[in-house]
Design brief:
79 residues; mainly alpha; 2 domains; rod-shaped
């Protein structure tokens, strides 16, 4: 006949330890996920201003390049 009882306590302890390890790993992954999400969210929400800043920087750089190209052209034309 089958007799009811508890399984050896070492198995129960191992299960609890495994559950705790899994919970700890999940917590770490959740924290990493939250950090990445918040960075992405900030970048996405501020995309318009970021694009405007990048565009302004590119325009200024192109303007400087064109001015220097114009000066070089004038200098070579004088020679």
């Amino acid at each position: 006949e089958f007799e009811e009882g508890k399984v050896a306590s070492s198995t129960a302890e191992e299960m609890e330890h495994a559950k705790a390890a899994i919970a700890e790993e999940r917590q770490k992954l959740t924290e990493i996920g939250k950090e990445k999400y918040s960075k992405f969210k900030d970048r996405f929400e501020n995309m318009d201003s970021t694009l405007e800043e990048n565009l302004e920087e590119k325009m200024k750089r192109l303007e400087k390049d064109l001015i220097s190209v114009g000066k070089d052209t004038l200098a070579s034309a004088k020679e």
